[in-house]
């Protein structure tokens, strides 16, 4: 099902778009050339050195599972795909596995071949990781996951554990050789230094990740910035940049400094391959589609304006609680998931 032209026009008329602005904090010579999409079209970008073409807007798997009606979840996923979204996000632990189950059902009837499917695992040792990979494949009703990511790399010791003897990377490599997964990445939301440690640990083992996921939002530039510290390294090594938490679970909007569209356009203005957007309703999906279709590279004046507006609110991380608290750390609350 696609949104009709009339519905889209009505939505455009009801959204106070304002001037999109962002402050990337990344030197201009390290930014990619980001062309504007043709009116009404979904822009596509290349996922790092993989060459895969992925939609600028990605669909967050966690929020899809929040809908009470499973059929509504399925309709939401398929509507996103029908409107050009081909990057699907998920995780082994979302809603106790229900998020993957629902997405697996949504990807029946020919939809699986239309998408680039990503999911994450929590296991940091080989046995746990291998088991979670197989469970995710079963839930998602697929023979191959396009991108498998190590989830919540948020502790300083996580990289050594994953790359150590009997670590989860061994399970990922075996799954890749067996054709169960195609690409390997990792995610985290705590501290850019931990991301850099994970990247460097990989380099020390002769391994370069295919993609890395992190919070990229308007407050990030002021506090423990992933945009400033991690994104340039990813661009240098041809690693796909996956942005998440563009609105910080709604916390950023509570600062009353930015609009939802501005939040999405900020993340899209970075050299992101995909901006993953949590959509728990058709309205939120259409908002994300609107942001992708109307995105254009932001001017220096727009970037400066947004930086100034968010400076005071963003300086101590109060609107990025995933960096400053453990409330969003599922593997802290459930260490048994790590194995």
Please give a structural write-up.
By secondary structure, this protein is an alpha/beta fold. It contains 15 helices and ten strands. It has helices spanning 5-14, 61-64, 70-82, 98-106, 126-140, 158-163, 168-177, 192-204, 226-229, 231-237, 260-269, 282-294, 300-314, 321-324, 330-333, and strands at residues 44-46, 53-55, 57-60, 87-88, 116-121, 145-150, 181-187, 211-215, 240-244, 274-278. The strands form two sheets. The chain has an eight-stranded parallel β-barrel with strand order 3-4-5-6-7-8-9-10, surrounded by five helices. Strands 1-2 form a two-stranded antiparallel ribbon. Helix 4 (98-106) runs parallel beside helix 5 and helix 5 packs across helix 7 (168-177). The protein is globular, with a radius of gyration of 19 Å. The termini are far apart. Mean pLDDT is 90; it is low at 1-37.
How would you characterize the largest beta sheet?
8 strands, parallel, barrel
The strand order across the widest sheet is: 3-4-5-6-7-8-9-10
**Ends: how far apart?**
41 Å
Q: What is the β-strand count?
A: 10
The quaternary organization reads as single chain
Q: What letter string, H or E per element, gives the SSE order?
A: HEEEHHEHEHEHHEHEHHEHEHHHH
What percentage of the residues does DSSP assign to strands (E)? Answer: 5-15%
Unreliable residue runs: 1-37
Structural class: alpha/beta
On the 0-100 scale, what is the average pLDDT?
A: 90
Shape estimate: globular
Instruction: Give the count of helical stretches.
Output: 15
Specify the helix fraction band. 40-55%
Radius of gyration: 19 Å
